[in-house]
Structures
1.
Amino acid sequence: MLKPERLKTILYYSLLWAIAIIFFLPIVWIMMAALKTNNDILATPPKFLFTPTFENIARTIAKPNTLPYFGNSLFLSIGSVFVATIVSFLAAYGFSRYKFKATNFLMFLLLSTRMVPAAAGVIPIFQMFNAFSLRNVFGVFALYASFSIPFSIWILKGFIDGVSERFDETGLVNGASRIHVIFRVVLPQVVPGLIAAFIFNLIFVWNEFLFNFILGGPTTQMIPFTLAVGLVDAGGNVDWGFVASLSTLYLILPVAMIFAFQKYLLVGMTFGTVRGEV
């Protein structure tokens, strides 16, 4: 006979596993569909036992736009978020250490930019990009970086607030410059926050479609654009093999990064609110 505490534990983890499996089922279906023929994908009832084939993946990679658009996705996502993370770290340090009266109001203004629906900003941003000839790699890169900065500042300020100012004071008293204190004293202690901010924003930019579709051109279009325009084959039917295989390939980077740095993401969810003094 199981003890009540043991039974509660089993039921608790069983519920967690059930919820996780339910949310993961669509991803499993996509991965399975990538290894099926079109007939197997559309079979009724669904086939769970089938002969795997890499035909869809090979056909997807062989398409002329797949690899260039993958390159655009990697460059625009990783590059813009990396720049945004560095800028956000410096800004968050300023907000944390130089506490002027308008700090809270400015932090609210920064976060409020993420509250506006993307569709509401498309037209003014489109007009601005046309006026300044920014519909190119530089313009889209700068746009994604600017979108990533507000949320990163909020995350990183919480982490920097958790680093005692005595570290700064000790470094400055011993002759270190402010730059040395920022990058050699504070930065190593907020690496989990940097990683969390980087991955959260990477996922956003990696999956962004609306601005890339409207503002982008051949040199800036990413994989979500390819999924949208390549959804229908020459016969007017949805090419489920292409959709499933490209989606599977596109999942590799975010899934790998989330799996490798999941402990930092959990810490990032708390915004570095656990603080201490030395």
2.
Amino acid sequence: MTSESPTSWIWADEARGGVKGARLKPAEGLFDWVDQPGCVCSDAIASQTIMDFREKGPLETPPADVLEEMRGAIRAAPSIDSPRGRG
């Protein structure tokens, strides 16, 4: 097991019987949100800055354990919106 944080997540979409997901793009300071992901293509339905994620919360509703992993990943990854990523 590595100590690196994950940068992509998928979870069951109980309401629609499919899956939803998110990808963290630390270099751009963005989360891409996907609906029914099938590949690591550019299938994002929306993008959200890390700063917006921190201030307003996620655009989707991942399960609590996934949300905590996402928060851990942005703490661990330097980005344009984080103090660790600034010059």
